[in-house]
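Severity: low
Component: inverse-folding endpoint
Summary: output formatting inconsistent between runs
Steps to reproduce: submit the following structure tokens with default settings.
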């Protein structure tokens, strides 16, 4: 079934500046441990089978814990898994550095822990004295690594008053770390960003957070917020070409803006009315050139606001201006490996070309986050 999209989403660019401050409250140290020895950090690497080559990382929300699986992207074979003591797992894949960074909690202590993707040995860990945000709206994590593998970004929120979501009720900021060692470098304030900000790590010197009033963009070397670009109510978002933000609304309207210039390059107003809705945990997956998008949706009746659980894999082609909806019962996650689309049906990994069909996890899964090294 093919359908189009309609209705514009408006954007304007404003200048804003927020100062950065030096970090002093966290410390990092190399772990020097082997896979399976990280229980004290709140995460455990298990069943490691060393391997090389293209890697798929699939992160499952399976209450009461989360599980990150390291999978051979060609065969679908599981190389190992990392258990997280949280049902809302937070991870960032560093493809350049060949490591997986996770937010781990143990005895009310938060730590960042980096694992080598080939061996699942722990590389380093960092204790965080301030709270880190958990799972932003749209399923995007609050962790990110720059495309060159140099910087790790961690999103934080700290309530200051009982009415934490009201103006002035909370502090919002990013901490920036050396991705190779975890050593903290600086902090970037995000005044009144609001809960559920979505972090996008792009070009080596750029990071953006989609806040309630728009996208805040910070750049090196000063790591100050150099611009704020108002963005209408988007659900999941992603970056293409390091600086171009693409997002879709709940009603599957597509919007795109260049984060360096503020210039809109996509503002959908298609002829056909959409009948599906983007699900709350729907990650937005984009082709390298941004010409096609994939997202989890829910078929809905006219006037319905129901969006869970997802039951459709939706492809949006920005070149042909067409949308293809493929019904997939129990759909829980989607990802892109090279040119291959992979998705999860509960605990089973499949691909649209039929090459992969592997049982990864038994039982129900709330959602999957799918990341790939190339």
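Observed output (run 2 of 3):
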């Amino acid at each position: 079934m093919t359908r189009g999209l309609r209705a514009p989403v408006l954007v304007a660019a404003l200048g804003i500046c927020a100062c950065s401050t030096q970090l002093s409250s966290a410390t990092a140290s190399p772990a020097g441990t082997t896979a399976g020895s990280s229980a004290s950090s709140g995460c455990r690497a298990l069943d490691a089978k060393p391997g090389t080559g293209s890697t798929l990382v699939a992160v499952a929300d399976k209450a009461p814990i989360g599980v990150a699986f390291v999978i051979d992207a060609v065969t679908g074979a599981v190389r190992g898994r990392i258990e997280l003591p949280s049902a809302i797992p937070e991870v960032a894949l560093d493809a350049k550095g060949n490591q997986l960074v996770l937010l781990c909690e143990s005895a009310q202590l938060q730590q960042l822990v980096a694992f080598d993707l080939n061996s699942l040995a722990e590389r380093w860990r960092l204790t965080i004295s301030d709270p880190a945000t958990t799972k932003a709206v749209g399923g995007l994590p609050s962790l990110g690594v720059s495309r060159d593998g140099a910087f790790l970004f961690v999103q934080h929120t700290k309530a200051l008053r009982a009415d934490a979501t009201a103006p002035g009720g909370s502090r919002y900021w990013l901490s920036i770390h050396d991705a190779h060692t975890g050593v903290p470098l600086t902090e970037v304030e995000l005044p009144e960003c609001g809960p559920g900000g979505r972090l996008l790590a792009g070009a080596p010197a750029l990071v953006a957070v989609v806040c309630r009033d728009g996208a805040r963009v910070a750049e090196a070397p000063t790591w100050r917020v150099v611009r704020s670009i108002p963005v209408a109510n988007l659900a999941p978002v992603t970056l293409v070409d390091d600086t171009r933000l693409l997002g879709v609304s709940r009603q599957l309207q597509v919007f795109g803006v260049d984060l360096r210039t503020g210039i809109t390059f996509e503002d959908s107003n298609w002829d056909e009315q959409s009948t599906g809705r983007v699900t709350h945990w729907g990650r937005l997956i984009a082709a390298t050139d941004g010409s096609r998008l994939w997202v989890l949706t829910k078929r809905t009746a006219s006037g319905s606001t129901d969006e869970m659980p997802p039951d459709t894999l939706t492809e949006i082609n920005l070149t042909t201006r067409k949308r293809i909806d493929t019904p997939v019962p129990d759909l829980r996650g989607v990802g892109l490996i090279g040119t291959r689309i992979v998705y999860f049906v509960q605990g089973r990994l499949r691909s649209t070309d039929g090459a992969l069909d592997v049982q990864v996890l038994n039982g129900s899964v709330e959602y999957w986050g799918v990341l790939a090294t190339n």
